[in-house]
Design a protein that fits this description.
It is built from 2 helices and no strands. By secondary structure, the protein is mainly α. It has one domain. The model has no long low-confidence stretch (mean pLDDT 78).
């Protein structure tokens, strides 16, 4: 019996860190919940609106940078 050729089928997987992927998913979930909760809060009259979910998105952007895995 011969040994199986490990390199016969090339794998094109990118090396994605599981911790980074789970952290991004959790931040996305938190942003969604905050968006739903901000609909309950009373709105400010006039043109001024407060989007609280943008703070969560900015925190994720500063922590992981612009080249975070999608």
């Amino acid at each position: 019996m011969s040994d199986p050729n490990v390199n016969a089928i090339p794998t094109a997987r990118s090396q994605v860190n599981v911790r980074t992927l789970v952290s991004l998913a959790m931040l996305t979930g938190i942003a969604y919940v905050v968006m739903l909760l901000s609909k309950i809060l009373p709105q400010v009259y006039g043109f001024l609106q407060l989007d609280v979910k943008d703070t969560v998105i900015c925190i994720g952007g500063f922590v992981f940078g612009p080249l975070a895995p999608p």
